[in-house]
Amino acid sequence: AGVGFLSLKPLTAWYKDLNDRVSFFKVWYNSGHPITFWVSGLFFPQAFFTAVMQNFARANKYAIDRIDFDVHVRDDVKPDGSDIPEHPPAGCYMYGMFLEGCRWDEKVHALAPSLPKQLFVPVPVVLFKPELDWKGRGGVYACPVYKVLSRKGTLSTTGHSTNFVRDMVLASREDPEIWIRAGVAAFLALKY
């Protein structure tokens, strides 16, 4: 149990997930840097986000501790971003996340209350765009992103949580307090 990636899935679903991850990395290896990344398939997504910030910082000769991500949801493309023609100038496109406690409303391009009987909904493709001295913007909710549904983890030897990945700012027409009370969070993997 201690040598596999963090998962709450039963064995057959875990094995399928492992095969999907291996396939994702094979395509990446054989075809080169993908335009969109399946964030759920990354074994250590925290390090991937750090690497994206490092690349941006080095390319622009910035200190990495002055870099953070702005987030732009691309609800105008396919769920896996396969119709995005080229890499972003900076940052990375990600897909494979799920929201709990709300949904993404493509008509208003913002978070909205969940529809009846929808516990988890896919997040559209997201651009994580590194910005220098980013102070945030109004009308957003800092949505926590976790690997699995348990929302708890321990600190690893690298100082990162074994479950918490990072916050992701999502546009909201509602006061962020509403989403906090609803327990809104994003997850990289579900139980099935």
Automatic annotation (TrEMBL):
Keywords: Membrane, Transmembrane, Transmembrane helix. One of its GO terms (biological process) is microtubule-based movement. The chain crosses the membrane at residues 35-57. InterPro entries: DHC, Dynein_C, Dynein_C_barrel. Pfam families: Dynein_C. Coiled coil: none annotated. One of its GO terms (molecular function) is dynein light intermediate chain binding. Residues 5-188 form the Dynein heavy chain C-terminal domain. GO terms for cellular component: dynein complex. This is Dynein heavy chain C-terminal domain-containing protein. It comes from Alexandrium andersonii. The lineage of its organism: Eukaryota, Sar, Alveolata, Dinophyceae, Gonyaulacales.
